[in-house]
Amino acid sequence: MAARQKEMIADEVHQNQILRELYLKELRTQKLYTQYHVNPLRKVHTITRKPMSWHDNLEEPADARFLNLIHHAAQGPRKKYPETQTESQEIGWDSEPLVSPEREDRRLNHFRVYSGITLYKAKLWSLG
């Protein structure tokens, strides 16, 4: 067995041929990537920038399209759309009161009115 191992090691031409085939196989299967992109399926962890860094605080020109998009997204649904987009928006879409709120109208406004006995009872209840 020892003689066989010496014979395998001593055959340098055979070893060189094996290494050459391995090298050529690696060259065939390797592909050099020069364009890199972010995997869309993987969660990206952003790192916050330093607040006092000079290159992070450079003024950039305002992008009008981006600003319009942000302002449109910040608006409420009644300002964005002329009518409801979902069934849930139908509730409360027309939020103006149907009848103008007149404070003097006794039919719609029931204010708390105290008389002698109700004032006495309210003080008694507030004391516990």
Comma- or semicolon-separated keywords:
single chain; mainly alpha; elongated
Give a verbal description of the structure.
The protein is an all-alpha fold. The chain contains 5 helices and no strands. The protein has helices spanning 2-10, 12-29, 64-74, 77-80, 116-127. The longest helix has 18 residues, at 12-29. The chain is elongated and about 120 Å long.
Compute the number of strand runs: 0
% residues in beta strands: under 5%
Number of helices, where a helix is a run of at least 4 consecutive DSSP H or I residues: 5
What oligomeric state best describes the polypeptide chains here? single chain
> What would the average pLDDT be, to the nearest integer?
82
The structure class reads mainly alpha
The helix fraction, in percent, is: 40-55%
Q: What distance separates the N and C termini?
A: 104 Å
How would you summarize the topology of this molecule?
Layout lengths: L1 H9 L1 H18 L34 H11 L2 H4 L35 H12 L1
